[in-house]
Amino acid sequence: MPVAMPTPRNEILPYRASTWNAGLALTSIAGLHGVGGGDRLAAFNHPETPMIRWQTQAFADLDTLTLYRLLKLRVDIFVVEQHCPYPELDEKDLHPQAMHLLGWQQEKLVAYARILPPGLSYPQASIGRVAVEESERGAGVARALMNQAISLALEAWPDAGIQIGAQEYLQAFYTSLGFTPVSAVYLEDGIPHLDMRFHQRT
Predict the structure, then answer these.
(1) CB within 8 A of 126, min separation 6: which ones?
(2) Other CB atoms within 10 A of residue 119 CB
(3) Residue 90, exposed/middle/buried by CB under 10 A (0-12, 13-18, 19+)?
């Protein structure tokens, strides 16, 4: 049964370096392969304190310039930076229930994630294409972005659950966000992965 997408929103959320768990901080990491079938995630390192304005839009509501910026961010990280030629654009972007989560600093797009409805990548909702602009890495933006994405998925599909595909060596990071493994390790693009599912935090 179709589920209405939450109303597009703008929200300012400061995330300071002190909110980042130093034991899980990931230095100069890119190329975290993400949610099912080639969705990708990347992690980040930079000492500055960001002030992020979060915005959520459906594909049909994206203006041309915003679409260009989010696609450029994704390609710059997942294709160019990671030296990984693969079909970055897929039909999932167009799904009417797909949510495009944008993180802005003034007029600059610095963070992005894609939240997909249940039944598209997994039986559960899923989060992927998680990316932070290189100059903004390291102050907890990745964690803030993931927390925003998790909240949106739970709001839209509260009973569906959330599943991602994560690189094995980043299991501790995702565990800190509330995910637990639900599969054996497998290879995707030659990199060990495992599926992880979110469990509601109390």
Answers:
(1) 35, 36, 39, 115, 116, 120, 153, 162, 163, 164
(2) 14
(3) middle
Establish how many alpha carbons lie within 13 A of residue 7's alpha carbon, considering only the half-sphere containing its beta carbon. 3
Q: What is the mean pLDDT of the chain?
A: 78
Per-residue burial over 59-68, b = 16 or more CB atoms within 10 Å of its CB, e = otherwise: eeebeeebee
In which element (H, E) is residue 128 found? Answer: strand 125-132
Query: Which candidate, 189, 186, 165, 167, places its Cα nearest to that of 86?
Result: 189
The predicted-structure confidence for 188-200, as pLDDT tens digits, reads as follows 776 788 999 999 7
Residue 21 tokens read as 């768990």
**Residue 41 exposure: Cα atoms within 13 Å on the Cβ side:** 26
Contacts of 95 (CB under 8 A, 6+ apart): 59, 116, 117, 120
Note the pTM of the prediction, 2 decimals.
0.76
Are 111 and 132 in contact, with CB atoms under 8 Å apart? Answer: yes
